[in-house]
């Protein structure tokens, strides 16, 4: 009996060891190396049929199915309801073909841009936190401290979102995600009638034992509303800086109103004087009032620009910079196993992984103004292929733009490019890359 047990243990250990030794690291980009890259287009829609499949979305054009979609490198939820041009490869999955996406680009074909109030936003502000929401929404504060949001145009005032700041209900609650720089938990449910419900918990940084709870409900095809909810989550911020910014914005608003009031008085005075002038010059020949010296001569009156208006920016000899993501400071963290990226991002910067595009293995955009997909990238981080991998981090300048190169592996490197004005943010991201 002992001999059998001993043999079984040796066999089990050998089996486990061989399994560990044969295990390979999964690289989502491998499938694009051997497959034939194709490009297709259509409207991206969620694929919610309850079957075993890797497909998460479907692509439709003119009401007909083009392909089932899946991707490990592109977040397709951001493209739901939009007409997209996607590139990738088809792979067989049982009785169906799945189109695995390498890159995706939004195209104007098949879409109609309508200027609505959805693009305008208002702010919900408390003492130590705030977030943005569309101006077409309204909220009612209940006695229990919960804020209930509904559509301004809905006569029935049906609630589709609520928000509250509360003590943590579950002490063992885990927060595996990161949203707006805070640890977060997210739970989604899809009913048979197509109603989608989301619960999102954000763990407070400034108040131990405190969390923020968002509850949101929509139809699975209400893409604009879901994008607006996502934008509200990502605009969330807390801390003393919020209070200072609110006070500053209030002062600016008050000063703006004063200026408008002064302008209105000046305009009234000007209008009265203009009326008098018209009376005085009513019978005069106004053409004679135009003098030649008031028409600028482009050869002599044009402003002179400096000859060297784009001189190269000066890089500190010691390479010093202000680290915006140092330990103890507030920052975002971004980790993607699909892209192999693990970085820290300066607080309040928006960021987006665009996947493979513009010749890069993957490209990320960063902007202080808003979503890089809408506002454009202030600076970019690209993973590029190379035959001459660098051995150390380097920084170079061309005109007013900087390029920071960071080692990655024997086949690729990181390249961060942007204006000199964003150098601290760029160097902070570069310095956070594990080496």
Write the layout of secondary structure elements.
Elements (H helix, E strand, L loop, with lengths): L1 H21 L7 H5 L3 E9 L10 E5 L2 E7 L12 E11 L2 E11 L14 E5 L3 E6 L2 E5 L5 E5 L7 E9 L9 E3 L2 E9 L4 E9 L6 E10 L3 H12 L2 E2 L1 H41 L50 E6 L4 E6 L3 E6 L6 E6 L4 H4 L3 E7 L8 E5 L2 E7 L4 E8 L3 H10 L3
Parallel strand pairs: 3-5
Antiparallel strand pairs: 1-2, 1-4, 2-3, 4-5, 6-7, 7-15, 8-9, 9-10, 10-14, 11-12, 12-13, 13-14, 16-17, 18-19, 19-20, 20-23, 21-22, 22-23
Describe what you observe in this structure.
The strands form 5 sheets. Strands 8-9-10-14-13-12-11 form a 7-stranded antiparallel β-sheet, with helices on one face. Strands 18-19-20-23-22-21 form a 6-stranded antiparallel β-sheet. A hairpin with a 4-residue loop joins β16 (331-336) and β17. Among the domains are: 30-106, OB fold (Dihydrolipoamide Acetyltransferase, E2P) (Beta Barrel), CATH 2.40.50.500; 117-241, Mog1/PsbP, alpha/beta/alpha sandwich (Protein Transport Mog1p, Chain A, 3-Layer(aba) Sandwich), CATH 3.40.1000; 331-432, Phosphorylase Kinase, domain 1. Residues 8-24, 111-119 and 269-310 have low confidence and may be disordered. The chain has helices spanning 2-22, 30-34, 223-234, 240-280, 372-375, 423-432, and strands at residues 38-46, 57-61, 64-70, 83-93, 96-106, 121-125, 129-134, 137-141, 147-151, 159-167, 177-179, 182-190, 195-203, 210-219, 237-238, 331-336, 341-346, 350-355, 362-367, 379-385, 394-398, 401-407, 412-419. It contains 6 helices and 23 strands. The protein has 435 residues and is of the alpha+beta class. The protein is globular, with a radius of gyration of 29 Å.
């Amino acid at each position: 009996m002992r001999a059998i047990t001993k043999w079984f243990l040796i066999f089990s250990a050998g089996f486990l060891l061989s399994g560990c030794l044969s295990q390979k690291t999964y690289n989502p980009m491998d499938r694009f190396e051997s497959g034939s890259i194709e490009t297709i287009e259509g409207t991206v829609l969620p694929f919610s049929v309850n079957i075993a499949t890797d497909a998460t979305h479907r692509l439709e054009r003119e009401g007909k199915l083009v392909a089932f979609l899946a991707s490990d490198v592109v977040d397709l939820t951001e493209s739901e309801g939009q007409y997209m041009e996607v590139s990738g490869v088809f792979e067989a999955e049982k009785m169906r073909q799945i189109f695995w996406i390498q890159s995706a680009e939004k195209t104007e074909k098949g879409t109609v841009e309508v200027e609505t109030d959805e693009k305008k936003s208002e702010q919900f502000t408390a003492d130590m936190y705030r977030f943005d929401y569309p101006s077409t929404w309204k909220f009612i504060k209940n006695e229990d401290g919960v804020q209930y949001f509904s559509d301004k145009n809905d006569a029935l005032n049906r609630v589709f979102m609520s928000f509250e700041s509360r003590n943590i209900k579950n002490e063992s609650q885990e927060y595996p995600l990161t949203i707006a720089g805070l640890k977060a938990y997210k739970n989604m449910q899809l009913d048979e009638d197509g109603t989608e419900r989301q619960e999102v918990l954000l763990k407070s940084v400034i108040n131990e034992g405190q969390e923020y709870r968002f509850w949101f409900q929509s139809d699975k095809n209400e893409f604009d509303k879901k994008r607006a909810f996502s934008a509200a989550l990502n605009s969330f911020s807390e801390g003393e800086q919020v209070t200072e910014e609110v006070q500053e914005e209030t002062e600016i608003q008050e000063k703006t109103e004063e200026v408008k009031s002064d302008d209105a008085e000046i305009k009234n005075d000007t209008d009265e004087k203009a009326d008098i002038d018209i009376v005085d010059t009513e019978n005069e020949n106004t053409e004679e009032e135009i003098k030649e010296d008031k028409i600028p001569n482009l050869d002599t009156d044009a402003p002179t620009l400096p000859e060297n208006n784009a001189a190269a920016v000066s890089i500190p000899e010691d390479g010093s910079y202000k680290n915006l993501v140092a330990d103890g400071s507030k920052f975002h963290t971004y980790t993607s196993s699909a892209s192999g990226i693990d970085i820290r991002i300066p607080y309040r910067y928006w960021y987006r992984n665009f996947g493979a595009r513009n010749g890069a293995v993957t490209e990320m955009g960063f902007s202080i103004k808003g979503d890089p997909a809408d506002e454009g990238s202030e600076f970019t981080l690209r993973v590029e292929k190379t035959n001459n991998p660098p051995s150390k981090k380097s920084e170079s300048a061309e005109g007013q733009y900087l390029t920071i190169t960071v080692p990655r592996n024997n086949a690729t490197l990181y390249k961060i490019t942007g204006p000199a004005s964003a150098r601290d943010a760029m160097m902070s991201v570069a310095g956070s890359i594990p080496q």
